[in-house]
Specification:
149 residues; alpha/beta; Rossmann fold; 6 strands; binds adenosine-5'-triphosphate; binds magnesium ion
Length: 149
Amino acid sequence: MASALLRLQPSMAPKTYHLTIALQGDLGSGKTTFTRALLGHLGHQGKVKSPTYTLCESYEVDKPVIAIHHFDLYRMRSAREWEEAGFAEYFLGDENRCSICLVEWPEKAEGTLPTFDVQIQIDYADENQRMFDLRAASDLGKQIIAALS
Ligand SMILES: Nc1ncnc2c1ncn2[C@@H]1O[C@H](COP(=O)(O)OP(=O)(O)OP(=O)(O)O)[C@@H](O)[C@H]1O
Ligand SMILES: [Mg+2]
């Protein structure tokens, strides 16, 4: 997925993209692990903390510049807590740089989040294997999934 994203950007230059990814799957299915791997492939070198208590942890990689916002909404007590916490702007995108929002437990927002470009369902296969099902809900999402195959 990271290579699809890195290939996407030059083809869109000088425009930027704003991508939202829903990460669905049971507790421990691998949503944070996927996000860590994606951040690593995009060039992030530091730690990736699980945003369990903060709702969101943000990163910026620089080659190319992409702002990445990693959400875990599992502990929200109400559907709009993500908005009340001031994170709505992350879902609007930014005309000066690419951005990606990855959201674990989007179902906790009960439909109050904007439509996701890509939905990833992760299922536990066995201790060492997971199954991924990717669905696109926008042209950008379709472009990314097409670039993967
Ligand atoms: N693709 C994978 N292959 C093998 N093991 C994995 C894979 N993805 C995750 N794991 C293991 O599963 C465990 C849970 O992973 P992770 O924390 O990413 O789950 P999660 O979906 O984010 O859970 P939560 O819903 O609690 O946030 C970790 O021990 C991790 O090493
Ligand atoms: Mg997690």
